[in-house]
């Protein structure tokens, strides 16, 4: 997660641009900075900036913001360990300002305080590891600002194997074997919009573009799926969904499987767009996920609203 090469492809469909180091990222931002854009104007004042350049500028802006949020969380976790505390309070790990404003007071409610106490005890237990790592608990919200959300892909709880969970639904870090659900997602992407199947499962690039990759439960015990279900995460993530529904318009919700589809009751369908399909797991992908064409449909919906589409290619 810490390497910027996990977010390397930008928005040129033919020749893609790679960000392999932070210095590369800095050079790219400088090369398409506002000053350079002004200089690119024609003599009559008409801008020659291409849509691809504008997309790259926007991408890099939110890439930098995501990395800043991650750095803050890492620093807070490191500080707590150095002080011998062992954990960071949940409210200190949600650092994205737009979500803090949108969810004002949510983590101070009675249920959230009980949830915080539960998670802290699980982390300090020391016996069974908890996933994802502390600094990634709110990775979905810290990576996709509230006012940036274009689409939401709901998962259930994090992957429960070592090194898999990274706080983004369905996503795994580079170098980790693709789970079957994610591989099926990539297969549908290939059939739907022609994306090549990537060699890794890191979906950060989607998050930075405005795809909120939200699990309904944000923590799990090692090799114990659903072990943190009904401990307080569901009211919190329900609040996230309801806040998007109430305060935003035109967001596309991709609801795969019965658990995700059940969340449609939280969404105002007069303001938003809901796409439903079977879960992409190996057990159900052939029962309605393959062929759902949700990725192309999402971009068609965004395009009709005048919103830049998602570049799904990793």
UniProtKB/TrEMBL annotation:
A Pfam family of this chain: UDG
Gene Ontology terms: cellular component: mitochondrion; nucleus
Residue ranges of every copy of the Uracil-DNA glycosylase-like domain listed in the record: 142-302
EC number: 3.2.2.27
Gene3D superfamilies: Uracil-DNA glycosylase-like domain
This protein's UniProt keywords: DNA damage, DNA repair, Hydrolase, Mitochondrion, Nucleus
Active-site residues, Swiss-Prot/TrEMBL: 157
Protein name: Uracil-DNA glycosylase
Species in which this protein is naturally found: Acer saccharum (Sugar maple)
């Amino acid at each position: 997660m810490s390497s910027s090469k996990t977010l390397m492809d930008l928005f040129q469909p033919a020749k893609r641009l790679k960000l392999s180091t932070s210095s590369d990222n800095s050079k790219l931002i400088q090369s398409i900075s506002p000053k350079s854009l002004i200089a690119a104007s024609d003599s009559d004042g008409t801008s020659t900036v291409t849509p691809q350049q504008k997309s790259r500028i926007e991408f890099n802006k939110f890439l930098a913001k995501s990395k800043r949020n991650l750095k803050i969380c890492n620093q807070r976790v490191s500080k707590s360990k150095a002080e011998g505390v062992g954990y960071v309070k949940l409210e200190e790990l949600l650092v994205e300002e737009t979500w803090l404003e949108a969810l004002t007071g949510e983590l101070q409610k009675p249920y959230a305080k009980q949830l915080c106490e539960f998670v802290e005890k699980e982390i300090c237990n020391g016996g069974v590891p908890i996933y994802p790592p502390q600094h990634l608990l709110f990775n979905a919200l810290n990576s996709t600002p509230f006012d940036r959300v274009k689409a939401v892909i709901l998962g259930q709880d994090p992957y429960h194997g070592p090194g898999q969970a990274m706080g983004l639904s369905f996503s795994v870090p580079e170098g980790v074997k693709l789970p079957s659900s994610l591989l099926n997602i990539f297969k549908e992407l290939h059939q739907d919009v022609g994306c090549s199947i990537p060699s890794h499962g890191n979906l950060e690039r989607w998050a930075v573009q405005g795809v909120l990759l939200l699990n309904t439960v944000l923590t799990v015990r090692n090799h114990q799926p659903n072990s943190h279900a009904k401990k307080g995460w569901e009211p919190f993530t329900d609040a996230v969904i309801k806040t998007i529904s109430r305060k935003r318009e035109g967001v596309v919700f991709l609801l795969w499987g019965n658990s995700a589809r059940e969340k449609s009751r939280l969404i105002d369908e007069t303001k938003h767009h809901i796409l439903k399909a079977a879960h992409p797991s190996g057990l159900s992908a052939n029962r309605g996920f393959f062929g759902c064409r949700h990725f192309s449909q999402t971009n068609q919906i965004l395009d009709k609203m005048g919103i830049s589409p998602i570049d799904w290619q990793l």
